[in-house]
Amino acid sequence: MTRRCVIFLLISGWCHVHTDYIIRRFHAIDQKETWAKAQSYCRDKFNDLATIMDQTNNADAQQVAANGKFWIGLYHTSWKWSQDDKDAQLDNSFSSWASKELGDGKCVSVSALGLWSVRDCGAQSFFTCYSGEHHILEKQLMTWLDARRFCRSRYSDLSSIKTQQQNQEVSRLLQNVTGGASETESDEGSGGGVSVPMAWIGLYRHFWKWSDQSSAPYSQWATEQPDESKDCVVMDVKSSSADWFSRSCSEKHDFLCHSDIRASVLRSVKLRLSSGSADVNDPTLQDAILRQMKEKLEERGINEEVKLRWRDNVSHREEEERAPPGDSSHPEAVRLRLQVGGAPVFHLDRRGWWGLVAVGGAW
Predict the structure, then answer these.
(1) pLDDT recorded at residue 4
(2) Quick one: angle between helices 2-10 and 283-299, nearest 10?
């Protein structure tokens, strides 16, 4: 204990506190492009299409954009086949949607007529599995996730349909089937609507995510948004609002990019010799001091973005400063206080210290 006190009292020199943190800047591009072309531009010139993680980001982007509709990086991930988790749109161009308006579901079923419908993944339905050679209809009512688990445990996976022939093979399994989930669809032969059985297949889509692959915990959707049939997002910037609207990715709009800048802040903490003869240029002593400072930072929960080091030519002499006359209880008291967010985190005098500065510190 005595040794520790001696170190606090006898140190002298400058300790550098080096902090790094990320500043996100937004850039409004006055150039009307599709979402995909805007993404390519932003990735080439900056980091990516704008990723907005909180209300502060949204306000910053609004200020930069000023007015108008701007693509941001939020999008609906592509349709994927459960069997190989590949992008269905890139894998092949075949589809058999019952309607151009796909609705707000995330999972897909096929009917006995060979038409695909987007449904709530929690709905219960028959389902078709693929064994590696054949498609098999399972006449059990399950949610999409439960059906996938079943198919993966017994066969290969839920059925993938990538050609017209495969679509016919699967839809034939549902013909003359009774029970299970059904849907009213147009029957061209009768001119009316008929109730046809349906079964889950392996097609599904994820939720909203950002172009840089960040998740999307924050959103600023306008009223009655998003329209789940539209896969890309614009920020509609006005003087008093910056709400989000889902739009077709093929539309052309101006766009917002973001760049992340790593900012560095250097702070110097001066530790003065008040008595004794310890050599502050001793590397062992310097290491001991920095370890103690690091411990104080960790007590404050600051342990990743702060680097401590000694400046060159640590030790130098200067005239002793005397305490004001009559200050016998605290001789030679010289104090230094550092703050983060208004709260003191470092307090130094010639008798000891309690903490250290971190990101954003002010002298």
Answers:
(1) 36
(2) 100
Question: What's the pLDDT at 332?
Answer: 35
Hey, what are 88's tokens?
Answer: 């269905």
In a domain, 53, yes or no: no
Please name every residue paired with 198 in a beta bridge, in sequence order, or none if there are none: 111
Helix (H, G, I), strand (E, B) or coil at 298: helix
Q: Which residue has the tokens 């599904």?
A: 204
What are the residues whose beta carbons fall under 8 Å from the beta carbon of 140, sequence distance 6 or more? 126, 127, 150
**E strand residue ranges, the chain:** 13-33, 48-49, 68-76, 80-81, 107-111, 116-119, 125-130, 135-142, 157-158, 182-187, 192-204, 208-210, 232-237, 242-247, 253-271, 306-310, 336-340, 343-349, 352-353
Which domain covers residue 178, as residue numbers?
80-204
**Shared domain check, 267 and 337:** yes
Token pair recorded at residue 228? 């789940």
**CA-wise closest residue to 276 among 8, 91, 22:** 8
* Boundary residue ending a domain (155, 180, 204): 204
Single out the residue of 249, 227, 222 nearest to residue 238, CA to CA: 222
Query: What pTM value is reported for the model?
Result: 0.46
3-state secondary structure of 243: strand
**What is the DSSP secondary-structure string of 2-54?**
HHHHHHHHH--EEEEEEEEEEEEEEEEEEEEE-HHHHHHHHHHHSSEEPP--S
Residue 217 has a pLDDT of: 83
Helical ranges in the chain per DSSP H: 2-10, 35-45, 55-65, 88-91, 144-154, 164-173, 283-299
Tokens in use for 87?
A: 């992008």
Does residue 166 form part of some domain?
yes
The domain tally of the chain equals 2
82 within 8 A of 148, measured Cβ to Cβ:
yes
Q: Does 363 map to a domain?
A: no
**Distance, CA of 320 to CA of 188 (rounded, Å):** 100
Average pLDDT of the chain to the nearest whole number: 74
Q: Is residue 168 part of a domain?
A: yes
